[in-house]
Amino acid sequence: MVWVTFKALELDRSELAARLQAEQEERVSSALWRIDARLTPLLAEEAARPDFVFQPLGNNDTLANVGADNFLSAAPSQVLLHFELKPTGQGTSPQVRGQDGKGTKPDVYCERLDELLAAVQFEQLLSELPEQSLPQLTLLANNPDIYANEQPQVVVGNNLSQEEVAQLPREQQPNLNGPSANDGPSVPTGRGQSPATQAEGYGQQQSDNAFNNRIGKDLQQRNNAYQAFTQRTLERQQLNEQNQAKANRKPLAIREGISRPLWVGDKLLFAHRVQRGKETVIQGCWLDWAGLRRQLLEEIADLPGASLAPIGGDEVMTGRILATLPVRLVVPPPLAKPPLWSPIRLALAVAWGTFVLASGAAAWLLLGVVNLSERRASFVSAVTHELRTPLTTFRMYAEMLAADMIKEPDQRQRYLETLCVEADRLTHLVDNVLLYARLERTQPGKNRVAISVGEMLDRFTSRLADRAEQADLKLVVECDVSARQLTLQTDPAAVEQIVFNLVDNACKYAVPCSDQLIVLAVGVQGRTVELSVRDFGPGLSRSAQRRLFQPFSKTSEEAAVSAPGVGLGLALCKRLANDLGGELRFAAAQPGAQFLLQLPR
User: Fold this and answer.
1) What is the DSSP string of 113-128?
2) Using an 8 Å Cβ cutoff, are 22 and 16 in contact?
3) Structural domain of residue 69, as residue ranges?
């Protein structure tokens, strides 16, 4: 039971922890979806910006002339700076106006640009950016109107042809229609490639564990949604570029790489490489991570204790990562505090209660069997002693009378009377034993008849008086006329047996006494008739009172030093009284002892 309890409680705690973990994972999954949904428009917009909007502007240039957004007024608040880095280590920004020394410079953008150039090394940053280029849309020389009704040729990597692209492994083929939820690991299809699909440093490792598989599927779905949104944004931007190229009747000569979010120290950049002929530059933006983190945590305020932690470039990414940024959602483990009463704990309590009750019942039964065995052994010893004494008297007196050794008639008469007394004693002993055995085997209440109290007393009063006279005591019967006329439905023989045993005990144990009387009183108490037998002897001790009605309670040692008997009379009286529907109890009296027999009217 202890081992089962320990294991059950352990399983209960494990089940609770698993349930809380599953509930937390559901909340975490919802939080990741909300975060990625919040970041997707921002990153998709930045990933779709054409290369020329990152070029610095002179005093005489206007953003409208080059078709770029007005960075000074319409730049997203989550972006601290847009930049372009050259291999020489120089850097420019479209938000810093008049970089030729003419005009004015917004101090905040200048400071940010200087801070970025001090923290970034071109070669190191370039090595962390994917070399794979965006799928580009080009004009066919023999069909300038291809964009109106045909799928444009896809240019991947080093200007592979459509046939060469078809021969690539599926996971390396670009998907211009956006990733599907049923696809395998997605490949970069837009400038805003997520950390989950980047081949370098941010690979998501599959696990055979079902829990990790579920996390991987959730991440894949979020990544697919982000990729699809980015793809649509990129296609719209490229369509604008195509229209411009179509108007100029020249193909696009610039190859743009895939954008990738990465950490440079504590700065979060979103950058990509751009190939202009033989020159390679880096374009991108510096994201306001502090402001983004504050907004994202407000978005998931229903997830207590949650925080967002950056993921390093060489750190293996596991679950709870964003599909848009190299950031992990950190959530404290749920507190698995078991309830006071769970189904398992309730079942264990019932099992332990049953076990304790069964153990107690078994212990009580075994103790009762042991006590009964001891009492029966004592009873056998007491019966042996009780039988030996009268048998010895019988044999001795019978031998003396048979040998005609008693010549005087008076002495012979006394011997014969003694033999009669011993015979009655043996008869009483045997009757008690046989009656108690019969009560153990048969159903009570089969011999009940209607009889008046007066008639019943007349049947055994003379016998009781004779027994009291043998002990030099006097029997006094107290019963008024109204009580004698009451009728009882009872067994007169059983009542006689009870009263005779009580008088017999008084005769044996009340000598010597202060008053040579045994009082048999009859009274009416409500719906019962009460017969009391009282003597005026020394009474009973407390230990004797506790064992009064136990069968076989007298040992052979007690039988040797006390009045004759085997300790079965009162137990027999108690059982007979219960069978008659009444009650027998002891009542202390000063002096002496008193027994009350209550019978229903």
Assistant:
1) HHHHHHH--HHHHHHT
2) no
3) 13-330
Give me the phi and psi of 262, to 5 degrees please.
-155, 160
pLDDT the model gives residue 553: 64
User: Between the ranges 339-348, 359-368, 435-444, where is the mean pLDDT highest?
Assistant: 359-368
Residue 6 lies in a domain: no
Q: What letter represents residue 304's amino acid? A: P
State yes or no: pLDDT of 60 exceeds 90. no
Q: 505: which 2 tokens?
A: 């005990």
The CATH code of the domain that includes 516 is 3.30.565.10
pTM of the model: 0.50
The dihedral built from the CA positions of residue 383, 389, 392 and 397, taken in this order, carries a sign that is: negative
Residue type, 131: E
Give yes or no: residues 553 and 431 share one domain: yes
**d(C-alpha 598, C-alpha 584), whole Å:** 6
Confidence tier at 182 by pLDDT (50, 70, 90) = very low
Find where tokens 């510096």 sit. 286
Give CA separation, 68 vs 74, 252, 423, in Å: 11, 17, 136
**Same domain for 325 and 360?**
no
- Mean pLDDT (whole number) for 568-576: 83
Which phi and psi (to 5°) does residue 457 adopt? -65, -40
Task: Count structural domains, the chain.
Answer: 2
Burial 375-404 (b: 16+ CB within 10 A, else e): beebbebbbebbeeebeebeeebeeeeeee
Distances (CA, A) of 392 to 238, 263, 384, 396: 132, 116, 12, 6
What sections of 471-526 are H helices per DSSP? Answer: 481-484, 492-509
Is residue 553 classed exposed, middle or buried when 0-12, 13-18 and 19+ CB atoms within 10 A define those classes?
A: buried
Give the number of other CB atoms < 10 A from CB of residue 506: 30
